[in-house]
Amino acid sequence: MPKTPEPSPMSREEEFLKKYPLTPDLEELASTLGNGGKPVARPAAQGAAEMTAILIQLRKDQAATVAAMATATGWNYKNLLADLDALKAEIRDYEARLKEYQTQQDSLN
């Protein structure tokens, strides 16, 4: 009777990814790091859509931070103010990236 091969044991990385699957953002980061730190090439339309989705989420976070600041006092207020400044900087960066993608997209049309 032929012997059935035993399943090969999963590596630690495979076990970890099975328990904790990567989010799309982490997958993109992993592929970027695997690409020598250079951004992964993507169509301009896809990049613009991703930047728009990120900006929507950042603006929601900004609104939630401002709402939380209304009742915060002391060090909580200072921490929220720092978070708000960081969000504003991120929004500026993503708006610039969105503009770049839209310029690329317009040049292709």
Number of helical regions:
4
The average pLDDT is 83
* The number of domains: 2
- How far do the termini sit from each other? 65 Å
Instruction: List low-confidence stretches.
Output: none
Number of strands: 0
Helical percentage: over 70%
Percent strand: under 5%
Main pleated sheet = none
Shape descriptor reads flat
**Cα radius of gyration in angstroms:** 21 Å
N to C succession of SSEs: HHHH
- What would you call the structural class? mainly alpha
Descriptive overview:
It is a single chain. The protein has two domains: 30 residues, no CATH class; 67 residues. It has four helices and no strands. The protein is flat. The termini are far apart. 5% of the residues are buried. The model has no long low-confidence stretch (mean pLDDT 83).
